[in-house]
Amino acid sequence: MQLLISSVCMALTSAVIGNAYYQKKQFYPAVVYITKSNASMAVIYIQFFVIVFMFGKLLRKIFLGTLRAAEFEHLLERFWYALTETCLAFTVFRDDFNPRFVALFTVLLFLKSFHWLAEERVDFMERSPVLGWLFHIRVASLLSMLGILDYVLLMHAYNSTLLRGPTVQLVFGFEYAILLTVIASTAIKYVLHAAEMRTDTPWENKAVFLLYTELVIGLIKVVLYLLFVVIMAKIYALPMFVFRPMFFTIRNFRKALNDVIMSRRAIRNMNTLYPDATPEELRQSDNICIICREDMVNHSKKLPCGHIFHTTCLRSWFQRQQTCPTCRLNILRAPAVNSTALPRAPGAADEPAAAVGAAPAAGQPGPANATGANASPAIAAPDVGLGRANGTPTGANAPPPSFAELFGDANGFPNLGGIPPPPLMPMLAPFMVPPPFAYFTPVPVPPPPMPLDLTKFTDEELRAMEGNQRKHIEERLQLLRNITLMLDSAGILMNQYQGLVARLPPTTVSTSATETTTSATSLADVASTTTLASTTSPVSSAVYDKPSTSTAAAAAAAAFAAKTQEAHQIKSVAPTIAATVTSTSVTDKITIEDLGADEDDVPTVAATDTIAATADAENEDSSELSELRKRRLKFLEERNKSPDSAERAASE
Amino acid sequence: MAGSALRRLMAEYKQLTLDPPEGIVAGPISEDNFFEWEALIAGPEGTCFEGGVFPARLVFPPDYPLSPPKMKFICDMFHPNIFADGRVCISILHAPGDDPMGYELSAERWSPVQSVEKILLSVVSMLAEPNDESGANVDAAIMWRERREEFNQIARRLVRKTLGLPT
């Protein structure tokens, strides 16, 4: 087909030239004759294009060899787009439309095609199994040749613009500048690919280099396009023909930017949050990175879910998605849960402490709770906090240990990395009358024994209490029984409280001082009950050796206690008792809802008490408990908003 | 050292050759290009596609395995989850984020732990149990749901066609 066209063309051209020469007999008259005749010129033009095409084929043979089907397809597609854009450009420059102009555009298109092909070739490098020296010579020479041509033509356009003011050379100068950036990025990619091929191990940072190359080149291109559009719009008309490539360039740049941001985030996450897989962990697993299906010798990371991958594989995946490839755990949503690292407490100390600080600090008491006979710092802590908030030390321990003392443990864990210690409450006294213990008398159930101070346990004792033996299980069950008892009393308290609220007149301002204190006291009770209930879940889930679940809940409970104190603080600074009452009732409403949920929960926990400690039952309960925990966490989220409402009430 | 996508594809090819799953043959069309594979899938036994051998083509993206390959049957197919042009529509082939049918869970989507073998096994089970919720081929989905006998007949005719038997 091509052969036919070129031979027909050749025949036509020779006929035209022969005819002219035959008629005029001499060289110059013949040339004049041909240029004057439109038909002859058409033939000559066509011949010109055919020659360009053939030249292109020759160059392709030299520099690229045979094209792959995909390459050819892409070339054709881009060529048609470029052609239509060129035609659009003609409309802007219709005044100086002449053969020279067409020729320049042809050269531009011709060079563009080779740029595309070179790009494709270099992209293909990464995907082809074997590349000979011929490939390298070809690509290198093609790239340097194109680069030099671009530079020469760019300089030519620049000089002619300087000499003769803005002409169509402006467009060419811009186009060659763009092509120069294309060549630059292609050359960088080529160097990177070639460098990787020379080594026998995968080059880990190549992806990062490629990413930044893309970003920088994209930025240069975007700036060029914008400049061009502005200049063109000022001198000629809006250059419609660059809108399509400009759109794609901007889109690519945005994508590159996004990739860089994502990649940076992924790298940061990996460096700070996830521990390197240790050799024995690698030996335990089948030692194959499931992303690239290659052995993991070094540079592997362990995710919170326990799956291990190559650092580089993970990084490129995290650029797209922030989930574990195997189990799809969202790594951004659960950054601090480092449960798997916790059981090996001694080794955990040298982990990136700042990031996971919250987890060990809150998580360590979890297993400890389960073991203490009736000791629970999680329960003690909120009690202490509330007690201090009310100015009444309710706990048996007269100088209540601070949060830091309670949650920090002997292992030297960083203390409460994420949770700020609750502020002390010095100014509560003026408005919060310390409720006399007489108001506690309606409680028919005697308050359960107060937990021992866990900080007094030594490491050996704590470790001795962990385990699956009967003794340990009995101890845990005992603890659960205590919790049930507490919950029961909370339920009764709740009933009383509800009765009290029902008896309160709707206008709380006229309430007597006694009633104010009563409601304040009850509020304190209720709040402590909710705290208690919320601590139940970490404790009970800790019973089933699930520190991972307990960490979050325990941390949440601590946060909750802090929140409660904040609410009290707000109350205390309110100017009048009336305001106090109002804010109290606001907080009350919230706690009522909470307690409703608590009462639902009571049977669940009670059930855990009665069921024998068989493994099956444990599993069943733990699912129930996880449900409970979910509800609790949801409530705590809602609860976060409550200080706002209290504040609003106080300002009224 | 070649690119990671290529190495992974080579590893998968090796594994598929050494330990081929039942009823599946797959490999690159040419050793020069590991990014285009051809697969032969035997119709699962006990279904209307039993006995058939269906050729398909897999095209891998340059960033495989971070992005899923595309799969297309190159024989006539009539199935609720296969487009009229042969493209296979199963969730494992869709990257999380794009959801052509708007119902797939991200847990069923592509992830780098998937492989050619898993894709092909999913396709086999898709042949056995069409998902008539996703209407890649609505006609086929309706026929499969309402006129099963007719669907089976068409499937059997396709089976004979793939085997080169007169229909």
How would you sum up the major sheet of chain A?
Answer: 2 strands, antiparallel
Query: C-alpha Rg of chain A, in Å?
Result: 39 Å
The shape of chain A is elongated
- What letter string, H or E per element, gives the SSE order of chain B? HEEEEHHH
SS summary, helix count of chain A: 23
Number of strands of chain B: 4
Biggest sheet details of chain B: 4 strands, antiparallel
Quick recap:
Chain B: It holds the Pfam family UQ_con. Chain B: Belongs to the ubiquitin-conjugating enzyme family. The complex is a heterodimer of chains A (652) and B (167). Chain A is an all-alpha fold and 652 residues long.
Kindly describe this structure.
The complex is a heterodimer of chains A (652) and B (167). Chain A is an all-alpha fold and 652 residues long. Chain A is 70% helix and 2% strand. Chain A folds into two domains: 64-225, no CATH class; 356-651, no CATH class. Chain A has a two-stranded antiparallel ribbon. In chain A, strands 3-4 form a two-stranded antiparallel ribbon. In chain A, helix 7 packs antiparallel against helix 8, helix 19 packs antiparallel against helix 22 and helix 21 packs parallel to helix 23 (615-651). Chain A is elongated and about 120 Å long. Chain B has one domain (4-162): Ubiquitin Conjugating Enzyme, CATH 3.10.110. Chain B has helices at 4-18, 116-128, 138-146, 148-162; strands spanning 24-30, 33-42, 53-59, 70-73. The A-B interface holds A 68, 123, 125-129, 193, 196-197, 199-203, 290-294, 313, 316-317, 320-321, 323, 325-326, 328 and B 1-8, 10-12, 15, 31-35, 62-63, 65-66, 95-97, 106-107, 111-113.
